[in-house]
Queue: 2 jobs
Job 1
Amino acid sequence: MRRGPRLPLEELAPYLLELPDPPAPFDWTSVFDADRPVEIEIGFGKGLFLVNAGQSRPDLHFVGVEIVRKYQLFTATRLAKRGLHNVRVACGDGRLFLRDRVAPASLHALHVYFPDPWWKKRHEKRRLFTPEFAFECARVLRPGGVLHFVTDVEDYFHMVADLLKLQPALRPLPPPQPGEPAHDLDYLTNFERKFRKQGKAIYRARYERGEAAS
Ligand SMILES: C[S@@+](CC[C@H](N)C(=O)[O-])C[C@H]1O[C@@H](n2cnc3c(N)ncnc32)[C@H](O)[C@@H]1O
C-alpha cells in the first residue's frame, strides 16, 4: 500500500474502536465523548471515504467496520496523520457488527460502497447483502436516516434492490449525481476512483428509513 509506513499502535489507539466481548450495542456518546449524529461505513478498504467525510463533516461522527486488519491500521494511520478525531475504525464482520453492536434506530446514515459480490456458490456465505443484512440496515437507521449503496456490478445492484424492496421501512430516494472530481482524492472511495478512471459503469442508490417498523 502507498503513502508511507503505518504509525505505531500507540499513536493509532485513539482511532481504533475495540470490540468488547460479549458484544453489546455501543453507546456512541461514550465512544466519542459528545452527542452528534453517527454514520457507519461497512467495508471501508483503504479509507478514502472516511478520511474525506471526517474532514468535510466535523459536525458528524463516523465509524468504519472492515474485516481486514491491515486496512483498519492503514486507514487509522491516515486518520491519525490528519488528526480526525470524529472517526473510529473497527476490525470485524460488518454483518455481525450491525446485528450485535448497533442499537435500533440509532444511525444517521449507513454507507456500503463496492462490496465484494461473491457470486460463486462456494463463496456465497461471505456475501454482505443477504435478507438478514437488509433487515439490519432498516433496523439500525433512525427515521429519516439514509442507506447509501454503490457498486460496479449490475446484477448485484438489482439483487440488492430486490432485497431492500422487502423492507417496508425503507423507501428509495433519487440516486446521487456525482460531479467531476477536482483532484485525485476527490472521489467517493478508492474503488470509485479506480472504476471511474477505467470508464466503468457505476450503479448508485439511496434509501431512506421512514417511520414504519420493518
Ligand atoms: C471491493 S472492496 C471496497 C473497499 C471500499 N469500500 C472502496 O470502495 O474502495 C470491499 C471491502 O469490503 C471488505 N469486507 C468484505 N466483507 C466484509 C465484511 N463482512 N465486513 C466488513 N468488511 C468487509 C473487504 O475487506 C474490502 O476491504
Note: Strands lie at 38-42, 61-66, 87-91, 107-113, 141-151, 170-173, 203-209.
Job 2
Amino acid sequence: MEASILQPQFAAKIADLYNRMEKAYDIVARQLDFTCQGCPDNCCDSYFLHHTYVEWAYLWVGIGALSAERRKALENRAADYAAACEAALARDERPQVMCPLNEEGRCCLYEHRLMICRMHGVPSSLTFPNGQAKKFPGCFRCQEIVGSRQATPAVERAPLFRELVALEQELLGEQQGHMPKVKKTIADMILMGAPRL
Ligand code: SF4
Ligand code: SF4
C-alpha cells in the first residue's frame, strides 16, 4: 500500500467539500427530477483534464487502498487509456475513451472521484468576480429534460471551486508557484503515482 501524502485531517476536509458538491448536485437533480437511471450513455468516456494537486493526492488515497491486483489492473487500463487518447489527439480528435476507473459501468473509486465528475450531469454555472458567468448546460439527457424552460435550477460552482483552490493553497504552502502546473487526465494521475510534494 502506498503511503498517502495527505494527513487524515486534511483528507477529511476534501471529503467534506466533495460531499457538499454532491449535495448541491442532488438538490438540482431532484428539482429537475433527473437521475442517471436508464441512461443509454456513460459519460465516463468524456475527456477531461484536471488541474489540482489536492484532487490528485486525494485520488491516490483511494488508489493506495486498493489491493495490488486491482491496482495492477487499474494501471493497465490507464496505460491503454493514455495510448488511445494520444492516438486520438494525434488525429486532431477529442478523445472519447472509457475512464480507467470505470469498472463494468461504475466508478470503482466513487468516493474519490474528482470535482468535474461530481458536477457533470445537471446544469451549472461559474460566476466570476466581475459578475460574468460561464454556463454549463448539463449532459445531453438533462438538456432534454430541461428543454426550452426559461428558468432552470443550476449548481453554482464558484464557492465550491474557491474552497478547492483554498485547499490547494493549504496543501502546497510555500511550494505554491514553484510547482509545475497540473494538467492531467485521471490516467496520467494513476500512471505517475501520488504527487510528490
Ligand atoms: S450524467 Fe447524463 S449522460 Fe452521464 S450517465 Fe448520467 S444521464 Fe447519462
Ligand atoms: S473518476 Fe469515476 S466518475 Fe469520474 S470519469 Fe472516472 S469512472 Fe467516471
Note: The pocket of iron/sulfur cluster (ligand 2) is lined by residues 44, 99, 101-102, 107, 113, 117, 186 (CB under 6 Å).
